[in-house]
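Support request, please re-run this one:
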Amino acid sequence: MHEVVRKTLQIYLRERRVLGHSDFPQGALSYLNEKNAVFVTLYFGGKVIASQGRINCKKENTLYECVDLALACLTDPRFSENLKNPDLLDQINIRVDTFAPSSRRILRNISELNVRDEGIIFLSQNLGKLSVILPNMIKENPTSEAYFELAKQKAGISAELTNADYVIYALKTTVSSDF
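Re-run finished. Output below.
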């Protein structure tokens, strides 16, 4: 999937057109038969310069979802701040996480999170907040509490919460990356 993202960005930035069916790498065509959620993360110089994702697939299949999110990464302000020259596009690293709805489970307590291979979806309907921390995104001292605090921070929540204020899902993803 990371090849699809790279090709999408290259074609759009160099030719100003959207990736067409004939442009898809051969190995990516199997994703036309799936409908999984996708998260795209772009790195330059070791830091995140863009990310886009959805917890549910909105397009007709995983492949089109991936193309849509790759293009959406171009609207992330960090992208234009860090990659001022499109010729540097070959130097970015790409991570694509995909997951089916069956690959998530509700946690009764954050301590149930397996930080070795799970991330979290934090959802607060009371506050209208959602955030996602993908697996292995916390490199130093990855604890379940650290995942929870980062999810709250990304959601813009600084107040103390009760268990009735939110739901947490553990999330396993399939990662495709070029690093």
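The mean pLDDT is 94. The two ends are 13 Å apart (CA to CA).
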